[in-house]
């Protein structure tokens, strides 16, 4: 089986969140364990290509394309130096992609023409699928940015090669919405543009478009799959979601990247047998590196994430503020974020520079050290389709503090509720007070029985959250979906297929 994997991110070169890590790990695991060949298709970001010193070669020129009044001559490049992994194809169109960031500008503000960029990418992605000669059996589209590609591919089903179409809804917090008057300028297939206009209730979005076109959908956990149905119940997307078979599959941790035993990443590599000594050595190194007070008994909270509403960043900062102000804890944050959260964090750093540190740009070397040196990883998320940070934390024996949402509910068991099998501390509700109360529980855990703490850390480190486990479930989904599309009468999306054929 050959799959075209549509994504905007690919770690370590072009990444802002978990999608980049998934794009690197899942296709590789599917090829390694199940013989499913993947071609990755994503934008060519000129500034990032130059900064990373990447080498590419042009392989195909696609037709000149106009979207939103902007005409570009797209050229597909192959990324060189990928070894035995999936081939990576980069869509070069500097009119759209020669910018400072992937989704946002330097002030972390989303580009105003995001819908047009995604519509251009989608049309080009579909044209690559048709013209590359690679006979794709399945197209795996990630998030709303792939919605236009799925619509173009579905609209021509029966007239050209017809791969199965799978939509991964990484987060329904992001729809790719745009004003209705822009719909006619996106170059979408006429049938789908009309259907979207009819069903969008004045709120057209490319996620909605992808749902209308896809044969099935997947998301980051069984818990989030259930939440999606409830969260979208009163939105224009509800009907489209109801026609799709939605499968929740928990993502994995790339052990080739997040490995506490690897030399040259953290200051003191360790495994589950040496977790106590390793955590203390790395904590000391982290405190020294960042200019924090060196105190191995001081609870250290480490966070590698974007500072945004859905991550509960306001709850995180307000909940930990009393402990930081009293000199009872330290906090290290690695990652970009919205202005108001960066300002709030800057105020904490100013008030206690020996206890709080913020690195606003993601730094892989620092992230390794944070996971290895932190005692706890707080994640008071409001929305968390899967969550990778809690899985990475557990791989390093770092105890997660999580709200019971989405994939966090599926992967973290509260220690108080189940002392023998618990894997973290669950934050009871989405309030700063609940975060503070859970942090107090964490402090008591750290100051308590050392044998119990070591046993817990070893339990965290020996769990299987590998991408091989994720790939097994995904391969079964791919196989079943491709077979169903070869038998069109068995598709769940019969209503719209009849209109689009």
TrEMBL record:
All copies of domain Glycosyl transferase family, residue ranges: 298-443
EC category: transferase
InterPro entries with a match to the protein in the record: Glyco_trans_1, GS/SS, Starch_synth_cat_dom
Enzyme Commission number(s) of this protein: 2.4.1.21
GO molecular function: alpha-1,4-glucan glucosyltransferase (ADP-glucose donor) activity; alpha-1,4-glucan glucosyltransferase (UDP-glucose donor) activity
Functional pathway: Glycan biosynthesis; glycogen biosynthesis
Residue ranges of domain Starch synthase catalytic in the record: 4-231
Gene3D superfamilies per the UniProt record, alphabetical: Glycogen Phosphorylase B
Pfam families: Glyco_transf_5, Glycos_transf_1
GO biological process: glycogen biosynthetic process
Reactions that this protein is recorded to catalyse: [(1->4)-alpha-D-glucosyl](n) + ADP-alpha-D-glucose = [(1->4)-alpha-D-glucosyl](n+1) + ADP + H(+)
Swiss-Prot/TrEMBL keywords: Glycogen biosynthesis, Glycosyltransferase, Transferase
HAMAP family: Glycogen_synth
Family membership noted in the UniProt record: Belongs to the glycosyltransferase 1 family. Bacterial/plant glycogen synthase subfamily.
Role summary: Synthesizes alpha-1,4-glucan chains using ADP-glucose.
Record's protein name: Glycogen synthase
Organism: Streptomyces prasinopilosus
């Amino acid at each position: 089986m050959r799959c075209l994997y549509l994504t905007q991110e690919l770690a370590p070169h072009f990444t802002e969140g978990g999608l980049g890590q998934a794009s690197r790990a899942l296709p590789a695991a599917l090829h390694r364990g199940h013989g499913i060949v993947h071609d990755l298709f994503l934008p060519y970001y000129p500034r990032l290509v130059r900064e990373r010193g990447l080498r590419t070669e042009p392989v195909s020129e696609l037709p000149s394309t106009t979207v939103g009044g902007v005409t570009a001559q797209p050229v597909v490049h192959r990324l060189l130096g990928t070894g035995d992994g999936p081939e990576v194809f980069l869509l070069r169109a500097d009119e759209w992609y020669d910018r400072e960031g992937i989704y946002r500008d330097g002030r972390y503000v989303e580009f105003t023409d995001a819908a047009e960029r995604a519509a251009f990418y989608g049309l080009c992605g579909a044209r690559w699928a048709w013209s590359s000669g690679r006979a794709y059996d399945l197209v795996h589209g990630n998030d709303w940015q792939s919605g236009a590609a799925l619509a173009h591919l579905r609209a021509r089903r029966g007239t050209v090669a017809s791969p199965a179409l799978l939509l991964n809804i990484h987060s329904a917090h992001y729809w790719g919405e745009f004003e209705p008057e822009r719909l006619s300028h996106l170059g979408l297939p006429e049938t789908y543009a009309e259907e979207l206009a009819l069903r969008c209730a004045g709120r057209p979005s490319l996620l909605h478009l992808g749902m209308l076109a896809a044969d099935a959908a997947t998301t980051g956990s069984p818990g989030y799959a259930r939440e999606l149905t409830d969260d979208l119940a009163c939105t224009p997307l509800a009907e489209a979601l109801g026609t799709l078979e939605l499968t929740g599959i928990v993502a994995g941790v790339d052990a080739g990247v997040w490995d506490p035993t690897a030399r040259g990443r953290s200051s003191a590599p360790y495994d589950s047998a040496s977790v106590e000594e390793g955590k203390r050595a790395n904590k000391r190194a982290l405190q020294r590196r960042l200019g924090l007070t060196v105190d191995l008994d001081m609870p250290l909270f480490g966070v590698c994430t974007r500072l945004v509403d859905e991550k509960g960043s306001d709850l995180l900062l307000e909940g930990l503020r009393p402990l930081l102000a009293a000199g009872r804890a330290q906090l290290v944050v690695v990652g970009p974020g919205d202005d108001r959260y960066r300002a709030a964090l800057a105020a904490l750093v100013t008030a206690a520079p020996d206890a709080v540190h913020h690195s606003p740009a993601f730094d892989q070397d620092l992230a390794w050290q944070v996971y290895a040196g932190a005692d706890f990883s707080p994640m008071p998320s409001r929305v968390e389709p899967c969550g990778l940070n809690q899985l990475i934390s557990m791989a390093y024996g770092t105890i997660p503090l999580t709200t019971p949402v989405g994939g966090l509910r599926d992967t973290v068991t509260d220690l108080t509720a189940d002392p023998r099998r618990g894997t973290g501390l669950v934050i009871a509700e989405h309030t700063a007070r609940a975060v503070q109360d859970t942090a107090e529980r964490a402090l008591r855990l750290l100051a308590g029985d050392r044998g119990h703490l070591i046993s817990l850390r070893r339990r965290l480190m020996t769990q299987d959250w590998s991408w091989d486990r994720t790939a097994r479930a995904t391969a079964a989904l791919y196989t079943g979906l491709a077979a169903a599309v070869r038998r069109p009468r068995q598709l769940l999306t019969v209503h719209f297929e009849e209109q689009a054929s």
